Amino acid sequence: MRTLAIELRKEKRTGIIPVLLAVGILGAAYAFVNFLVRKDTLLNLPLDPMDVLLTQLYGMIMILNMFAIIVAACMVYSMEFKGNAVKKMYMLPISVPAMYFCKFLIITVMLFVAVTLQNLALAQIGTTDLPQGVFELGTLITFAGYSFITSMPVLSFMLLVSSRFENMWVPLGVGVAGFLSGMALATSDMGLLLIHPFVVMLKPAVAMSAQPDMTVTIVSVIETVLFLGAGLWMAKNLRYE
Amino acid sequence: MNYVITTEQLTKKYKNFTSVNNVSLHIRKGSIYGFIGPNGAGKSTTMKMLLGLTAPTKGSFTIDGQHFPDDRLTILKEIGSFIESPSFYANLTGRENLDIIRRILGLSKSSVEDALELVGLTEFGDRLAKKYSLGMKQRLGLAGAMLGRPPILILDEPTNGLDPSGIHEIRNLVKSLLDLYDCTILISSHMLSEIELIADDIGILNHGRLLFEGSLDDLRQNALQSGFAADNLEDVFLSMVEKDNAARKQRAKL
What we know:
heterodimer; A: mainly alpha; 9 helices; elongated; B: alpha/beta; six-stranded mixed sheet; four-stranded antiparallel sheet; 10 strands; 40% helix; globular
């Protein structure tokens, strides 16, 4: 708890929390505007209205979330490397893995807030703009949980990468490369491609149904835990040189 | 003798380069130990090993009877350190930077003001650390090391980047710390003239090897025996280093 409080203080003026909040608001605003402008087109698609609401708007929201995760993960370690502050942390009686875990926790909670804001907007659209009796809150909550879980491997992976490179452009480059390659591979049905964390995050966006894919969910959880475990191990065992 | 820091054949190798070679240091409790040597002699690497920033290739060390890495947190609670260059969060003010360290060490709020005052940064405490001049960053680093008045201070070239009056001030500050509270200081420099004004004991390092360890009186004695004036220790230091360099070249030829 003490480490978490210290980490939150360190984040002052970095923009990590505002960027994720902004993306939540921006995603919600996008959903409102998009549905307002394209309501008839969207509802005329040969899909279940709930699938339209959840999958047709998720593409852009997911991209916003992805870039917010990349930027937040880059910034959360850039501030440690900028004034060599991380060196001081290694010389103080603080657990470096605990520090890493708190950074993970902060970005995760803020992403959760962003996803919640976006889904509140979808819930509002669902109750006001979908035909009477079609909106299902349970389906929306399930899809929100699914989209959050599938976003976690990218978060976990990006934090690991940004913790290992002093130059912020490297994790940023990895993030952009991950996004582009993910975009190219997301529509493929090859199961092996799920190793790629960005492909996993893109899966709900390329699906036509709002029903969660169990394989993708399981892979997401495994990758999140694996990348987090690797990051914690590195924080503990690879010393500052 | 009551030693706070002892190292036993401490060695650090980077591939085929030996940065620190079988260094055995003995630092007395309540003393100022001057660690001198030319640039690249291995002073910083030795200090980094003492702080767990880098792992020794061979050898061991104890700090107040404790060992790394098992007692890492206990050891680091007792040490205030400043290695190579000041470390700080650029997005925070000087005061906020010290507050982070204070919270980690579990100290009272007043310790931040105390440290700022010690290094003469009180009036600049609310300025962003990234906007500090080099000298002010150096002072902030020192304030971070002195926060909570730790019993052991490890300072690596703390006067780097300071103007002459700043150097004088920090030198006096380091010297006055022993009177202020019970502490042991390991301080490095590449200038003997600077160290001889404050240190009780010194260790001379060159190319990773410890050429001399003892009190300043021992060094003066050594100077007289080698035909140098006892008041010119800088010459003794330089001749020791040159002699060692010549011997190294000789060994390399063979």
